[in-house]
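WecB/TagA/CpsF family glycosyltransferase: structure, please.
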Amino acid sequence: MKKNEYSTVVGVRVDTISFTDALRFILDKAKSRLSGYVCVANVHMVIEAYDDPSFKQVLLNADLVIPDGMPLVTALKNNYGVSQDRVAGMDIFPVLLDKAAVENIPVFFLGSTDDVLEKIERRARDEYPNITIAGTYSPPYRRLTEEENIEIEQMVNNSGAGLLFVAFGCPKQEKWMFSHVKSIHAIMVGIGGAFPVYAGLQKRAPVWMQRLSLEWFYRLLLEPRRLFKRYFYTNTKYLYLRYLKIAE
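Here you go.
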């Protein structure tokens, strides 16, 4: 799949690609330490891009925008007639770790908290003894200075990592990857929501809820105060755009 060949959901780029092909694309870039970035898209990200033209450009310039959420998978099937795989960040993250260990690709974890990073590193080393963790770093929870960004670039590049997992949350992590795509010698994957789950600090929705597109509801039950406003706005607007206003 060539860059910038994509489909759209409510006018926002989302790629039609199998789980296996997405995995192979990321690993091939990582093995060669080729700079690039992958966005893991759900309804929240799509609405952020619909509302913000500059963020929409971030997705347009990505190497891949993979469909994390079932509503996007369903939209791609309805729009383009493809049996689209759900390429969820929480599913592809451990598989990438496994393959990175097998194919000797150093990985770097960027974002979240020191506690989460410590737990992620411990679990990854337990599950994949041959994995090379090139580094971890939890930056300050604020806008980074130019000097701090340069330090992170140097940290990642000097580590030898070919695969950089970025967990700043949407849309911050996607914008950060876009702004560093020419200076970081690794493929970057925005995987924010997968970090606390893999670390064992949050539970993932049961499989039956995932299949019924209710994973967002499960997360809302866990964090109602933080997520209610976001989900009420993004989900309502998505349904309006998808079924009442525009048909793409």
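Notes: Residues 3 and 63 are 6 Å apart (CA to CA).
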